Amino acid sequence: MNTLILGAGLVGSVMAMDLVADRGCKVTIVDASIENLARASRRAGGKVKTMRADLSDHAYLGKIVEPFDVVLGALPSRLGFAALRTMIEAKKPYCDISFMAEEALDLDAFARKRGVAAVVDCGVAPGLSNLLSGVAAMELKPCMRLDIMVGGLPVERRLPYEYKAGFSPSDVIEEYTRPARLVENGREVVKTALSEVEAVDLPGVGTLEAFNTDGLRSLIRTLKVPTMRERTMRYPGHADLMRAFRHTGLFDETPIAVKTADGGTAMVRPLDLTSRLLFPKWSYTEGEEDLTVMRIEAEGMLKKKSVLLRWDLLDRYDRKTGATSMGRTTAFPCTIVARLLAKGKIRQRGVLPPEKLVAEKGLVEHMMSELTKRGVTIRAERIELA
Amino acid sequence: MNTLILGAGLVGSVMAMDLVADRGCKVTIVDASIENLARASRRAGGKVKTMRADLSDHAYLGKIVEPFDVVLGALPSRLGFAALRTMIEAKKPYCDISFMAEEALDLDAFARKRGVAAVVDCGVAPGLSNLLSGVAAMELKPCMRLDIMVGGLPVERRLPYEYKAGFSPSDVIEEYTRPARLVENGREVVKTALSEVEAVDLPGVGTLEAFNTDGLRSLIRTLKVPTMRERTMRYPGHADLMRAFRHTGLFDETPIAVKTADGGTAMVRPLDLTSRLLFPKWSYTEGEEDLTVMRIEAEGMLKKKSVLLRWDLLDRYDRKTGATSMGRTTAFPCTIVARLLAKGKIRQRGVLPPEKLVAEKGLVEHMMSELTKRGVTIRAERIELA
Questions:
Q1: Do the chains contact at A267 and B260, CB–CB below 8 Å?
Q2: Are B125 and B352 in contact (CB under 8 A)?
Q3: Of A257, A260, B155, B190, which residue is most buried, by most CB within 10 angstroms?
Q4: Identity of the residue in A159, A249, A262 whose CB atom sits nearest the CB atom of B277
């Protein structure tokens, strides 16, 4: 098996580490940053081929993919959509975690026409959350409510934020500002991000807070469940602080006139200054431990009984490999699906968010057992409701 | 009596209103802003003479003060020290609330030499707080502990700040950043502003929080009390939020490079951007009600008994006149003392912070009764300690 990974960041490097463990799996990783490539190579025990290239150069990417059986996308969100289109054009099986802002399903018809399977949003959430939502929608007849809660958090809680960003901090702030689309009474409704803050007790973690964010993505279009929402989880208090920042205008993207040090005036987007100040404080230091927590709840009818299905994931930083939990839980679903793509074990064609993969026979069980092998366990519960 | 008020802002306009109520008291008010002068004139029922002038033009101020019996200073803090020196040079009795950053007592010798009485920091806190601290230090033998707590707050509490600024918002932020000098074990110690946040229950207000700010000012030099601190009070939660802003670097005065809207880069002081965003949100709207709360506690020996002296002030916005509580409680101590100065009833010469005024016979009683006439009541308690 010959694999190509686009992006050697926190997630791409863990993908490389995971793939080189397979006997006979050749891994090439491409990135613009020499530092990123060096770290990825180090993590993969030197068993990975590195290529330095500009990941926004689609023509180049389209050219180099030819020899590979499958391509994995671990790109910054702003590069995700273009890379997806390039892979479809190149008729290359593709599995991606890039969290693009664009609507990936808009390329579905194009991908079907090209006969390509491109799995998108294939990380933890979106990713495993979609797959398990798909399971719930399939098992429950009908599924009446779907609730996804997810968070990546530092183990060491330090005020005032009690938070660090396991991925791009600017994507985190976008989560705090972009209106959250959810489904109520069968209709799409829009709520303010960071709204409806609620305390949630989770085994092994304690009390967190959950609030609305715009994370349902493809599920709004693919599942017919009358009540659906996705929420982000943080240590309690974080949402209030971020709401105060937002209320003050610190996340605004409209430029305002500000005095400059030389006595002049400049038009500055408040978000740019806030990011400059906040991002260093939100960065994990080398070896700093994180955890990932996800809970999915689905309510509906199963064999004429009203039941609640619940899945709990709690994953921690890997001290042995230095892989962050956010890297692990995001990379593994993608590498597991990529292997299936390379081996031709995904039958559907088109742009496939993970909830579509429940139609692939044995895939869910395979995913669970492969995750367990990697130390990522998901506890499933079935509770009969009164 | 012929009086001159420097500054027609929130406080100056209330001073004018108060002085014109005296039969035979002529009042002139000077300011650079026509709007400020118009409001002051309106509040004083048109009975005030207005002059438009640049308050930083000391030569001009020195010239115009000649005909006046007393001058009242209600200037922005940055203009306070220069105005004080100008009044001393002009040998003019002066009473000031300008909250200058400079050390007013540095001009004490000069003022004595010129034979002038210049009362400084003569508002509510500093001001009444100094006077009552002086009372405590005089009555208790010895006075072992002095605790001043003060806050100006909006009546309507609105998240996230539950705060509006009754005076210059930049002076408020300076309170949150300037290290707090206090006295412990007879020594001056420095603590971080916004530190040691403690809940305090106050009659008529409920629970507030009190935290260290740099408000002792002259008391550190004038009183020999081994434990002294000044704290600012806010509705609970405000300090944590301001600490988070400060921790993020939003109050920093060191310029950092920020992207500009036109694709360039500018060096910007984070504080300048934060102020631009925060100040409109912290401004009282016309008619918005505020309150002022102050508690002073002093512990020591009185007639061989260990006692606690406590003074509580709670003042509210005046719906009849539209005068803010912060304006009222700051202006009245100054107008009351200014009248005494004009009538030659202050015997001491030099730069006089209010704690020095306890040596003037009958002054404290006069102050209390005059404040009561204006609806500002201070409740005094004497509690015997076990």
A1: yes
A2: no
A3: A260
A4: A249
- B268 with A270: Cβ contact below 8 A: no
Give the best residue of B268, B281, B282, B283 to mutate against chain A (max A CB count within 10 A): B268
**A79: distance to nearest CA of chain B, Å?**
20
Tell me what pLDDT residue B166 has: 77
CB contact under 8 Å between A248 and B272, yes or no, is no
Give the gap in angstroms from C-alpha A210 to the nearest C-alpha of chain B.
19
A-interface mutation test, from B277, B278, B282, most A Cβ less than 10 A away: B277
Q: CA of A101, closest CA in chain B: separation in Å? A: 22
Contact A272 B262 (CB under 8 A): no
User: Exposure pattern of A110-149 as b/e (b: 16+ CB <10 Å)?
Assistant: bbeebebbbbbbbbbbbbbbbbbbbbbbebbeebebbbbb
The CA distance from A271 to A248, in Å, is: 11
Look at residue A7 in the predicted model and tell me its pLDDT: 97
pLDDT tens digits for range B228-282: 999 999 999 999 999 999 999 999 999 999 999 999 999 999 999 999 999 999 9
Name A223's Cβ contacts closer than 8 Å, sequence gap at least 6.
Answer: A133, A134, A137, A143, A146, A355
Q: Give the pLDDT confidence of A1-53 residue by residue, as tens digits.
A: 999 999 999 999 999 999 999 999 999 999 999 999 999 999 899 999 999 99
Nearest Cβ partner of B273 from A161, A270, A281? A270
| Segments of chain A assigned E as strands | 2-6, 26-31, 49-52, 70-73, 94-96, 117-119, 143-154, 180-184, 187-191, 198-202, 206-212, 227-234, 256-259, 265-268, 290-302, 305-316, 350-352, 378-384
Per-residue DSSP letter, A303:
T
Q: Tens digit of pLDDT for each residue in A84-137?
A: 999 999 999 999 999 899 999 999 999 999 999 999 999 999 999 999 999 999
CA distance B50 to B13: 11
Using alpha carbons, select from A180, A81, A139, A193 the residue that is nearest to residue A311. A139
Per-position DSSP letters for B74-125, written without gaps between them: ---HHHHHHHHHHHHHTT--EEE----SS-GGGGHHHHHHHT-EEE-S-BBT
Instruction: Identify the bridge partners of residue B206 per DSSP, sorted by sequence position.
Output: B202
Q: In the prediction, which pLDDT does A170 show?
A: 81
Amino acid present at A112: R
Q: Token pair for residue B86?
A: 């100008």
- Asked whether the beta carbons of residue B256 and residue A272 sit closer than 8 angstroms, the reply is no
Could B276 and A258 be called an inter-chain contact, meaning their C-beta atoms sit closer than 8 Å? yes
